[in-house]
Write a structure and sequence with these properties.
2 strands, elongated, two-stranded antiparallel sheet, mainly alpha
């Protein structure tokens, strides 16, 4: 096999590094992603930057105000269990976002057509730039260093 053919064969092996590196970056930094999601929810915004709708019912808004909580816009916060229970996990299909509270599924269904959870593009792009790309570079460089003749 020529050097060129060896190089091509080696480059083809790099595809085996990409998904595991992506998953590593997400899973190693899940706390940061979960905090970004909490910050977004605290502003009452979904993953597209839209306000979370429909608004709270008058009765629920009254109850939140009674406890000194925000009732001016939907933020999904009352006890804090949902926020504390946020879970970001990388899978082969992408990032799975959920919460360990039993009432998460009805909330997702009720608000913004299921588009509440997920990071807004700008926040996600910052994560890609600051975490995913450096992780990929490290893993790919490691693969190059293991290459015969390096």
């Amino acid at each position: 096999m020529s050097t060129f053919e060896q190089d091509i064969a080696f480059l083809k092996t790099l595809k085996d590094v990409i998904l595991p590196s992506y998953k590593k970056a997400v899973n190693d930094n899940s706390n940061e992603l979960e905090q970004d999601q909490r910050d977004q929810l605290k502003k009452g915004e979904d993953r597209d930057g839209n306000q979370i709708k429909p608004d709270y019912s008058e009765g629920y808004a009254f109850k939140k105000r009674k406890f000194g909580l925000n009732a001016n816009f939907v933020d999904w916060k009352f006890t804090g269990r949902l926020y504390k229970g946020l879970i970001f996990k990388a899978t082969n299909a992408g990032i799975e976002i959920t919460s360990n509270v039993p009432y998460i599924a009805p909330l997702i269904k009720k608000y913004n057509g299921g588009r509440v959870l997920g990071l807004q593009s700008e926040i996600y792009y910052d994560f890609v730039k600051n975490e995913i790309i450096p992780t990929l570079k490290t893993e790919i460089n490691g693969k190059f260093n293991q290459r015969p003749g390096s």
